[in-house]
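Reviewers asked in the last cycle whether our approach scales beyond single polypeptides. To address this, we selected a multi-component target totalling 804 residues and predicted its structure end to end. The input consisted of the following lines:
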Amino acid sequence: MEMFDLSIIWAGIIGFGVIMYVLMDGFDLGLGILFPFAPDEDSRDVMMNSIAPVWDGNETWLVLGGAGLLAAFPLVYSIFLPALYLGVFLMLAGLIFRGIAFEFRFKSRRNRHWWNRAFSWGSAIATFAQGVVVGAYIQGFQTENFVYTGGAFDWLTPFTIVTGLGLMAGYALLGSTWLILKSEGHVQDWAYKITPILLAIVLVVFAIISIWTPFVNEVVWERWFGNLRLIWIFPALALLFAFLVFKSVKQRRESYPFIATIGIYVSTYLGLIVSQWPMIVPPNYTLWDAASAPESQLFLLIGVLFVIPVVLVYTAWTYWVFRGKVRVGEGYH
Amino acid sequence: MELDPLMLSRIQFAFVVCFHTIFPVFTIGLASYIALLNGLFFKTQNPAWDRLALFWTKVFAVVFGMGVVSGIVMSFQFGTNWSNFSLAASNFIGPLLSYEVVTAFFLEAAFLGVLLFGRGKVPQGIHLLAAIMVAVGTFISAFWILSANSWMQTPAGVELIDNRFHVISWREAIFNPSFPYRFAHMALASFVTGGFVVAGVSAWFLLRGRDPEANRRALSMCLWLLLFLTPLQAVVGDYHGLNTLEYQPTKVAAMEGHWETANNVPLLLFALPDQEAQQNRFAVGIPNLASLILTHSLDGEIPGINEAPPEEQPPVMLVFWSFRVMVGIGLVMIATAFAGLLLRRRGRIYESTAFLKTLVGMISLPFIAVLAGWIVTESGRAPWLVYGVMTHAEGVTPSLTGWMALATLIGYVLVYAIVFYAGIYYLTRVVRNGMLPEHAQDKSDPDADRPKRPLSAAHTPFDDDVDPVRS
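The resulting structure, written as structure tokens, was:
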């Protein structure tokens, strides 16, 4: 009856929101993970100042994603959240502490070390929880008649712990390459030094997950080792981008490492989507099963199509205003 | 002991939503006040208005930030603890909650930065426009949330097909029967809350002789505002009650502690409702007054709580007493506003230490009244999640176990305790260091203005007072 499939449009919007969130909150969460390992307090100031103007704008994508899912694909919302119940709590608690710490650290002198701790622990926990979500998505969910029927800890398996740790390394890599872009002097030297190590960890985890995934989920096995050869382009691209990160760090290029890391993420993300497509709540429900009524999807689409461009323009403008290097002993500007 | 995931989920939702509500109920009123102050400054160019606008914008920045942080949790609660409800009602609730988020984003992206950081950097007219748009934006946000809530109280415009609500008429669903009353009641509550906070803080500044010119203006304005709004709120509340009587008679009966359908119903001032025995103990009341208020006739018939079978009755004790707390505080607020009028005629509102101290002491009352009111309306519709259609038990997440709900409840209480402590602590510091002469204000704040970071607009250090106040 429709001229176009609203569910596909919404899958595109939500998919875009998710990757925007992962990339943007990824580098600032990553800096939180790297925070305790920084060489000195000056570097920590630079790290924080490099993300201060943008981090909570980055997190708004998470809220938009959550609300958008409820409106467009309610089944995802009503199965993922109960299934990941305790993990969701950990993620939210981590994000809240981290956000509050961010604001108050700048205003605090005597209590600064406490806010430092809240910032790094909050970032690490939130990231781990998000990595677990990715793992749980690959694993699939135990459902019956559109309801989650699994247990409280189905989300916490050896496989999801590996994906959780993997995302921590991955966000840290985004963080370190972002820092290369935004810093100079000894802070940048440190970022150059740790980037290859983080890249190596990411590649190892990437390999483990790739080998392990087909055993966790049969559909994925079939998809990758069946007749659909074209999808091997995504892991190939991811490896190519990884090589570019490595090479550009060696040449001490400033912006390429970050851009190439984004490339790794986008290729991996697309690879993940094609492994499951069109399953949105694996292994049982497609995105059409999960969709809300077309009139509801249309009702919200009107508002979202109007607002997303505004948010994008404003986001771009913020990054433009705060472009350039952050120096030791001064703010980001 | 058996842990009941349903009861624990209800407690958890009540806790997080009460905690969250405190912030928006204040910022909605305050945003309009800031727009008004900016408008007055724009028109008269009197710097006193500008000083007030500057100070209250700092407070707004902090409270708005706390509201956003606590609101993130809300958008996940529906899925984690009420997944059956989320799925069933998603066709309507989903777009509404999303529109709220979208509105808030749009507001934040376009105007909040200009309001918080654009002072002196953009033309005054643009700054005023931003202030007005932020105020309008807070109302639009409230519009969507209250519409969703009202729909759950008085569902309309939908059809239930295969356990899923489908929207037949967006207009009827959004503007459902209880929505106009709830929206008016809540909007006024926001103004009254904002009015009492500003009046109380201005009184505190006046008691310390800080910027008397500006703070006298602020106090005087608020008292005029409250003189009209507090009685108006009582009238609107009465209409809201009549609407509830029509659509949710059991809730009204619980508010009145009225068990048996009868004529000549008294207005109870005190009672201990006993749910087991389905009657009150130690009831003291004014004869016929409830009939008069609710039916506008002395012998009007009012349906009793026991029209509903015991398993479909709300917790009467909670509803009954929360209602009395709300109304009681409302009466105290009206009395205070009129006391202000009497003192004003004798020219003493700025000098009477007792009156100023009373105003300082009243800062927390409107918040308690708002929470009590929400407890009345939310627990008063129990056991219904969507009134008459879906119960709490039907809406709760099936896979949720008692200990899971308890663990996260304890977790949220701990997280919010820390956040709330840090936030209120910081807010009191902003107030303590507020409205000081230019030279006394701290200029060593390492923080600079950052768009999209509301708190950075407050400019007050977290520790170390600029001008220590012992009180």
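The first helix of chain A runs from residue 6 to 34. We regard this as preliminary and will revisit it once experimental data from Aim 1 are available.
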